[in-house]
Amino acid sequence: MATLYHFPFCANSRFIRLVLAEMGLEPSLVEERPWDRRDAFLLINPAGTTPVLMEQGGLVVPGGGIIAEYLDETRGLGLTGRRLMPDHPAERVEVRRLMDWFLVKFDAEVTGYLVTEKIAKRFMTSATGGGPPDMNAIRAARTNVRYHLKYIGYLMARRRWIAGDHLTYADLAAAAHLSCVDYLGDVPWDEDETARDWYARVKSRPSFRALLADRVAGMPPAGHYADLDF
């Protein structure tokens, strides 16, 4: 059985949890707080970041995008009709482009700020960066999420799913990041109904159930977070 080192509100970790669930895989989950910089974890991944997938034979696969590619190469061909990466090269490029948009760009402009300031700092010591949230960072993230939401709405007005006709890694990457922001109540869903309807479709999938059950101690989610009809 593979092991996934993750932090429940690391959006890229959530992406891989969704991917594994869609593939019908149930890894052993080990919660890792990256800011603790545990020596044992650094030996596995010197970058100290999550997610990290460790195969039963000892192979270490670090990072959301790399794990997704690895899983497609090793398990994807067996998912007849349910493969999360298209067969056609041009379609694969579009999925990779949008994966990068959310795993890197959205993370840098939205999720990283909000999760760090509102969640991670609650558990960090002062030596590791803990303390009161930076409201300037939170305001920047709340501004940035609006244009990302509009972009999702733009894509969904032209496609059945974010990258084309079928559910792909792109949808799971986008939904994973939005799920963190949605937990905190910082997604202005009333500004784009098309994006909201797409997200409702994704979060209604069985693979999303574990994410919707995640909780931060002392910080309940937004009231609609686990509501599949929201």
Report on this model:
With 230 residues, the protein is an alpha+beta fold. The chain folds into 2 domains: 3-78, Glutaredoxin; 89-206, Glutathione S-transferase Yfyf (Class Pi), Chain A, domain 2. 51% of the residues lie in helices and 6% in strands. Helix 4 (89-123) packs antiparallel against helix 5 (135-156). The model has no long low-confidence stretch (mean pLDDT 96).
Short description:
The chain has 230 residues and is α+β, with helices and mostly antiparallel strands. It has helices at residues 11-22, 39-44, 64-75, 89-123, 135-156, 169-183, 193-203, 209-213, and strands at residues 3-6, 28-31, 52-54, 60-62.
Strand and helix map with partners:
Blueprint: E1 3-6, H1 11-22, E2 28-31, H2 39-44, E3 52-54, E4 60-62, H3 64-75, H4 89-123, H5 135-156, H6 169-183, H7 193-203, H8 209-213
Parallel strand pairs: 1-2
Antiparallel strand pairs: 1-3, 3-4
Pfam families: GST_C_3, GST_N_3
Organism: Methylobacterium cerastii
Protein name: FtsZ-localized protein A
